Amino acid sequence: xxxxxxxxxxxxxxxxxxxxxxxxxxxxxxxxxxxxxxxxxxxxxxxxxxxxxxxxxxxxxxxxxxxxxxxxxxxxxxxxxxxxxxxxxxxxxxxxxxxxxxxxxxxxxxxxxxxxxxxxxxxxxxxxxxxxxxxxxxxxxxxxxxxxxxxxxxxxxxxxxxxxxxxxxxxxxxxxxxxxxxxxxxxxxxxxxxxxxxxxxxxxxxxxxxxxxxxxxxx
Length: 219
What we know:
The protein is 53% helix and 12% strand. It is an alpha+beta fold and 219 residues long.
């Protein structure tokens, strides 16, 4: 591997289970590979509107995804639990508040960005609990170690133009790189951005940037 650091941006939304898989694998590799990993909370709804349809709208694909995520979760050792009504839950949940809250954290308390994002996934994808209501957002923040005062302050920030615009800009940036879903991973290598879609392309990412792939759970 070359000694130069490769900036790797991870555009993600906590409503996306594949984003969780990609997030955990990149977290595991951030100290193994010469990468500068940057978390870029974005809004999947905005990307879908711009360039895609939810995969759950295609019955065969939805059926496959249920099995796929189960297998991937086991292989990646990430505790995604698929409930029977998973697609109703996803389609019935707006992640906008959660992603604005995560954006507010990114802007003011970036040291909490990784644990907070993880707690949102755990709540929605492991515990099958709601993440859209303010009290549930605050519960997630507590789990991630934020004080009640801080969490309350951040919750008030989510309606501010600064936070709304930042999330919108990040989402537009992902779309500009060519993203049509989540996770979207952009590696800045040899002076240009390389887009990788999905949690199962990280082996390919390693190959492009000259790093060794050691499986999804490198020891």
